[in-house]
Amino acid sequence: MLTVIKPVVEKALQPVGRLLKGVDPNLISLLGLIFPVLFFVCVLQGWYLLALVTFIFLAVDLLDGMVARYANKVTPFGSLLDSSIDRFADFTVIAVFGFAGIVRWNIVLPLLLASFMISYIRSRIELASDKKISGAVGLVERTERMLTVFVGLLLYAIFPHAQWGGFNIAELLFLALTLASIYTVGQRAAFAYKKL
């Protein structure tokens, strides 16, 4: 859905990508571990403004692939490493809401499961079709998930005591994202059934 903004962000990052083309893309991928960890620590400490600023730097995730393409260093291992670090970042960025007591674990865990299932089904579709079919279908992809988490923290930081039906504002967004993610899992499963 919001994946259409990815080319816009990539275009904005092109000068940085060209500047870094002599750097090993796998090193850039590994450096991408820093920002989810910083986000985790900031949220856990209640430093929400700093966490939101740190969150913006998660866009560094786009640089490794860009640098790999500029330097003709695209490799299957690089793709595997990038995808694995994305899963680590997803877990860290979502799970901290449970660890920090912002969102109850019985809301966090279903979202984590649905998020991982979305990525897993895409991967299996592409593997089963020898990358001839893209599994990037459905309502929610990583961009939507990350943006919703960002907005959830922003609104919670502004309105920490806002409640509706016994849920705070971050919990309401997590619930909506979980439902949309479960729907996306169904969309991808149906797509796989038709195409494979």
- Annotation, overall tally of beta strands: 2
Major sheet, described briefly? 2 strands, antiparallel
From the alpha carbons, calculate the radius of gyration and give it in angstroms: 17 Å
Structural class: mainly alpha
CATH superfamily placement: CDP-alcohol phosphotransferase transmembrane (TM) domain
**Average pLDDT value?**
89
What's the CATH architecture? Up-down Bundle
% residues in beta strands: under 5%
Number of folding domains? 1
Order of helices and strands: HHHHHHHHEEH
Distance between the termini: 23 Å
Low-pLDDT sequence parts: none
User: What is the helix fraction of residues, given as a range?
Assistant: over 70%
What strand line-up does the widest sheet have?
Answer: 1-2
* Level-1 CATH class name: Mainly Alpha
The number of helical runs is 9
CATH topology: Four Helix Bundle (Hemerythrin (Met), subunit A)
Large-scale geometry: globular
